[in-house]
Design a protein that fits this description.
6 helices, elongated, mainly alpha
Length: 102
């Protein structure tokens, strides 16, 4: 059960209304706003209603709620940073410099 404070609610509403944040961040903010069960919430939404309204899978709603409850708002909204590159570089730095020089 997600209970947002008024500060958290204001921040999430600002992100979702702003339009300058990445699309995924806006979507995740909207999911959290719809999951809110505090007295400030305008309506109680089920996972199915949220998923159909925002065009996401029902599991995404559950994962966002779980991550918010376990780790807080910032990790829930922001994507994780990749630890390493998906593939190692094919050229070494010296080889790349030679290629650019040519």
């Amino acid at each position: 059960m997600v209970f947002l404070t008024s500060d958290q609610r204001e921040k999430l509403e600002g992100i979702s209304r702003n339009g300058h944040a990445p699309t995924k961040k806006i979507l995740h903010a909207q999911v959290l706003l719809m999951c809110d069960e505090s007295t400030q919430a305008k309506q109680k939404w089920t996972d199915e209603e949220i998923s159909s309204a925002l065009n996401v899978h029902r599991n995404t709603v559950g994962r966002k709620r779980k991550r918010f409850l376990q780790q807080g708002m910032n990790p829930c909204l922001n994507r994780r940073q990749r630890i390493s590159q998906p593939l190692p570089p094919k050229l070494k730095v010296e080889q790349f410099a030679q290629l650019i020089a040519i």
